[in-house]
Amino acid sequence: MKRFLKSEDGQTAVEYILLIAVMATIAFSIMKIAKERLLADADNCTESSKSMICMFKGIYDRRDFVYFTIMRTR
User: Of 57, 53, 27, nearest to 38 (Cα)?
Assistant: First the structure.
């Protein structure tokens, strides 16, 4: 009985299970944040949206770019 109580095999298994659970929770949180920030619809941007697409769309408007043609010289 004493040998069973002093055995640490069960403790390490529980520690690994808890470690995997914490890592999975962190991974899902990071994926949710990345989805909100990176994968957004550029047509549905609001002032409160945090996505990078909406941020760049707010900074750079189409009217800011000058359209030009490249001509070949001889």
Answer: 53
Domain boundaries, the chain: 2-64
Considering only CA atoms, which of 64, 42, 65 is closest in space to residue 52? Answer: 42
**How long a stretch of residues is the chain?**
74
How many CB atoms are closer than 10 A to CB 4? 8
User: Please, are residues 51 and 37 in contact by the beta-carbon 8 Å criterion?
Assistant: yes
Q: What angle do CA 39, 43, 49 make, to 5 degrees?
A: 60
pTM, two decimals, is 0.52
Contact assessment for residue 7 and residue 18, using Cβ atoms and an 8 Å cutoff: no
Residue 39 has pLDDT above 70, yes or no: yes
The conformation of residue 47, written as its DSSP 8-state character, comes to T
Question: For residue 37, what is the DSSP state?
Answer: H
